[in-house]
Write a structure and sequence with these properties.
8 helices, mainly alpha
């Protein structure tokens, strides 16, 4: 096989495995590093790593494989830049469908800010499982594989994260006079 045909094969494989998942990759990187510009850098670096590691991909879930690379690259990037932190931000467009009507849009924006604030206050290990399970739709087994932890730990973290989110959101809504604390 010539060098050019090997490059073509790798290009086609990369396009089929990685490119369909760039949206999810960018979402995860944005959550982890905290802003769009840095997330773009992380995704670019991750794509280079994925391309170099294509020969090590043994089949299975390409999305989970890519997001594992994104996660590892994000944490490496944060450590390298002295920015590892508990809290990161994300954009309103990660939540919900677009509402109609001015008042509904305003309420949606307020709700997104409240939810965003509550999610940002979660410890990184809780925020991570919430994102991967509830926003990206990965199974417990896939998350466990990506994070290198047992499935039971994923379930435990997810349960704790949801409980804490629910408690925090009740408190925030009560403070804003938009809801009642029923606990």
């Amino acid at each position: 096989m010539s060098a050019f045909s090997e490059i073509d094969r790798k290009d086609r494989l990369f396009e089929s495995l990685v490119l369909p998942h760039l949206g999810a990759a960018f979402n995860l990187a944005s959550w982890l590093v905290g802003n769009r510009q840095d997330a773009e850098d992380v995704v670019q670096e991750s794509c280079l790593r994925a391309f170099k590691a294509l020969d090590s991909f043994r089949g299975g879930n390409a999305r989970a494989w890519l997001l594992s690379i994104i996660r590892n690259t994000s944490y490496t990037w944060l450590e390298r830049h002295g920015m590892y932190r508990k809290s990161v931000s994300f954009d309103d467009d990660y939540l919900g469908d677009e509402p109609s009507g001015q008042e509904e849009i305003l309420h949606q924006q307020i709700d997104n800010r409240i939810v965003r604030g509550a999610v940002e206050n979660l410890p990184a290990e809780f925020r991570e499982v919430i994102l991967l399970r509830d926003l990206e739709g990965f199974s417990y087994k896939e998350i466990a594989s990506m994070l290198g932890i047992p499935s039971g730990t994923v379930m435990s973290r997810l349960s704790r994260a949801r409980t804490r989110l629910q408690k925090d959101l009740r408190g925030l809504l009560s403070e804003k006079g938009r809801g009642k604390d029923t606990t």
